[in-house]
Amino acid sequence: MKITIESSRIVKPSYNGKSPSTNLQIPLSVFDKFTYNTHFASIYAFKPPSPSNIAIEKGLSKVLSEYREWAGRLGEDDKGNLVILLNDQGVRFVEASVVDTPVQSVLRSKPTKDLLSLHPNTYNVQELLQVQLTRFACGSLAVGITIHHMVADGHTTNNFVVAWGLATRGLDVNPIPLHTRGTLFKPRDPPLIQHEHRGVEFTKHMLNTKMEVDHEAKDEEEEIIIHKVHFAKEFINKLKANASVGISKPYTRFETILAHLWKVMTKARGLGGNETTQIRISVNGRTRMNPKIPNEYIGNLVLWAFPRSKVKDLVNNPLQYAAELIRSEVAKINDDYFKSFIDFASSESIGKEGLVSTAVMNKTVISPDLEMDSWLTFPLYGVDFGMGKQYYYMPTYFAVEGVLFLLPSELGDGSVDALVWLFKKNLDAFKMCCYSIDYRSCM
């Protein structure tokens, strides 16, 4: 694929009436400070006809007046605390075109290296948000965005992209984002640290906090591939029924699919029975804190649950065993846990003990563990710039063995797509069990 960059410029917020001060700053919350210090990229695609680049750019400028953080920069206050400078320096806006490759050859059902050309570079950039509009010869439009994770989590990012679509269509941004990250998560006085956070969200020793840009495998034994699994609604219902035998509260779609993939992935890896395996599960605090945090809150509000098991117990026990581990560990990340984290993360222990966040992408192999994100509750197919909603959504390409993504299928019928990063040598074993409910026949 040959991609031509037509233009690259900065887009700044446009305001109705008097512009606000550009000397303001917002302190990062503890959830912002101790999340992933990196950019993440995603691709949205729209069938023709699509709005003009000028219209989309104007919509971006308009929505930035409500989401000013994206047009700012990361910096420090006079005490050395991390802040977002609301200086309106703007976001990167790139226009590109592809004429030699059909869109269907680029936008496949799983991330490929071609996607890296559909969004701006994510390394060593000052802009907190970058956008690339890529036009194909057939008229299709790919919108690639990169966001700095310390500014916001996936929930906020999804709200922003939907609001960008509203602004492009000339509609009011609704709901209005809530800018309270600097005041909402204050530590209690006196603090009440009820849970252990050392070795969970914090550690002393992180020798390498930068993930390698590319993992080029030397041979098939090392090659990491991305495999897409589609779970039809009927299969999901069978999994749920299998996992929920004899209990009064059936397991959810999320709990069941993740439990299934955990078992299958563990078996496919060929791990030793006495090894311990765990999953790092992102847990959204908006509905778990008391009082609940409004959905329109801008910022990060995610912690992690870590269900773990001996390999032999995970593989040999029924699906319910894994599902219950997941349910019980996620349930522990409740209001008490979030507030305990706030108190500990705000304490002097962080500096005195030299603690740093465990939320770093410094590995290309996570085995025997897994790291997963679920976007099942996000309206991923709700972005509309004026000519219809997108037909395609995909995170960008990277190569880290042991990552799982759960996405709502574009079919909109309750089915689920799972993206699984694994070694190529383990793919056949994974496929053998992936659609089997009788685990004895493949394990």
Structural class: alpha+beta
Task: Give the number of DSSP strands.
Answer: 18
SSE pattern, N- to C-terminal: EEHEHEEEHEEHEEHHEEEHHHHEEEEEH
The largest sheet is: 7 strands, mixed
Task: Give unreliable regions as ranges.
Answer: 208-218
Per the principal axes of the C-alpha atoms, what is the gross shape? globular
Helix proportion range: 10-25%
Overall pLDDT, averaged? 94
Count up the helices.
Answer: 11
Strand content: 15-25%
Q: Cα distance, first to last residue? A: 41 Å
**Rg over CA atoms:** 22 Å
Structural topology:
Blueprint: E1 3-11, E2 24-27, H1 30-33, E3 39-46, H2 53-63, E4 73-76, E5 82-86, E6 91-98, H3 103-106, E7 129-136, E8 141-148, H4 154-168, E9 202-203, E10 224-231, H5 233-243, H6 253-269, E11 276-284, E12 302-305, E13 308-310, H7 311-316, H8 319-332, H9 335-345, H10 349-352, E14 356-357, E15 370-374, E16 392-395, E17 403-408, E18 416-423, H11 427-434
Parallel strand pairs: 6-7, 11-15, 15-17
Antiparallel strand pairs: 1-6, 2-5, 3-8, 3-16, 4-5, 7-8, 9-14, 10-18, 11-12, 11-13, 17-18
Helix pairs in contact: 2-4, 5-6, 6-8, 6-11
Question: Could you explain how this protein is built, in words?
Answer:
The protein has 443 residues and is of the alpha+beta class. Residues 208-218 have low confidence and may be disordered. α5 (233-243) crosses α6. The strands form four sheets. Strands 10, 11, 12, 13, 15, 17 and 18 form a seven-stranded mixed sheet that branches. The protein has helices at 30-33, 53-63, 103-106, 154-168, 233-243, 253-269, 311-316, 319-332, 335-345, 349-352, 427-434, and strands at 3-11, 24-27, 39-46, 73-76, 82-86, 91-98, 129-136, 141-148, 202-203, 224-231, 276-284, 302-305, 308-310, 356-357, 370-374, 392-395, 403-408, 416-423.
